[in-house]
Amino acid sequence: MKRLRKRCRTFLEGFLLINLIWLTAHFLFHITVIPNPIDVYRNSGTLIADRIGIHILYSLWRIAAGLALSLLVGVPVGMLMGYSVRANRILYPLIYFSYPIPKTALLPVAMLLWGMRDGSKIAIIFLIIVFQVIVSVRDGIGQIDPVMYLVTVSAGATRAQIVRHVALPAILPELLTSVRISLGTALSILFFVEGYGTKYGMGYYILDAWSRIDYTGMYLGILVISVIGFALLAGVDLLSDRLCVWSRKQQE
Amino acid sequence: MLSVDRLCVGYRTKKANIPVVRDLSFCMESERVLAILGPSGCGKSTLIGSLAGTVPIKSGTMTVFENGNPEPLSPKTHRIGVIPQNLGLLPWKTVRDNCLLPLRLRREPVTEERRKEIREIWQALDLMPLLDRYPTQLSGGQAQRAAVARAFILRPDLLLMDEPFSALDEITRQDARELFLSLWKRRPAVAILVTHSIEEALYLGHSVFVMGKREGKILLKTENPFFGVSDPRQPEYRQIRRLLRGRLRPDEEEDE
Predict the structure, then answer these.
(1) How far is A108 from chain B (nearest CA, A)?
(2) pLDDT tens, residue by residue, B114-168
(3) Average pLDDT of chain A, as a whole number
(4) For chain B, what is the domain count?
(5) Are the C-beta atoms of residues A215 and A33 closer than 8 Å to each other?
(6) Residue B175 lies in a domain
(7) Are the beta carbons of A249 and B137 separated by less than 8 Å?
(8) Of A220, A237, B169, B174, which residue is most buried, by most CB within 10 angstroms?
(9) A3 within domain boundaries
């Protein structure tokens, strides 16, 4: 809770500062592409008229689907790499090599394989998040103290029980950290993947306003995305506060 | 009764098989504590690991005799309690959940009688006010008591201890040993205690082994009449202590 309040304050401070810079830039450059922030806020009523809620829901659904797929694939693969030397030897070079590839460059492939609609959009978000998840799970498994296995195996634990009682809780804090980082990336990629084959989503909203030279609308869209981003990160924080009480206590 | 017969444990590198324990045999009557003394890196922890089922053995047998029936030692069939050097409490579980974990893993039903017994163990170890804490919120002594509670709550057939008191300061350590002894006396199990301390071995072991530096060879086996005697002053005590200390010296390597 304390962390959440701190995060809120950080957000508020950042928000004020950004607006200040924005306002200064507006008066400094005097071009239409930087409108007066006050005008933008005054126009925020148009968001309701544009039914911004639907755009937000579409974007959230795409991110949620990409994230869920990444966890579904990334956690087991990361565990396999963490526990099996052989699997790690085969998969690690592959991961290492494909990690720095800009995933958006694979968009044409994704489009051909999964179509222009949600399929390719979710695939790109998935590709961005899944590597982070795999690497953090693998490293998390490697950091588990072997004594954790001694006390559970000696008590007759099965493989599934070890995953449930040792591996999953041990990797959770690191996993949530990597999810937090990749959520930010996924959000910024919306701008890119929602630029085609859809009429909904925050990325579409911004691009659409831009192409109509409606700079006020464009900035409103950007503001909404940043608020969504803040809410998602705060959500992950709250979740990690709830699930990782034990690791919080250590720091206090 | 526990019988270990020609046990060989080792690990394999790309070039060679490196034996850690070779042809180790010993036998323990039930309700006895065996203390094993030895220099660092002599294979004591490997032995504990093999008995606990985490270190695969290469050859040999480990057998538990119950009413004369032999049964190969296995974590699936036998209740094995372990108190490792750093206590091995899972950081993400409270003291209560840590203590009950072995029962949960074995899917043992917690009957009313069992619950009473668990409560008694917690009370004896002064853990009642600490049950909802996480391991990181415990002092060294408290964590040690939690690990002891976990081992006894399981009603172990075999109790394995790998320097369980070494992380404690001198005063807490003596208390912890006494506490352990009183618990053990009420629920005696076959127990193996690995330790660096001669005094500890003589206080808590019915018999004492000295392990050599190479391949887990046992250099000395002795019965110990001073089990549970807190402050022995007999000249025999000094004698046995001198004997053990002499065998623990590192110059043992020459006479191999």
Answers:
(1) 44
(2) 899 899 889 888 889 999 999 988 888 889 899 999 999 988 889 999 988 888 8
(3) 87
(4) 1
(5) yes
(6) yes
(7) yes
(8) A220
(9) no
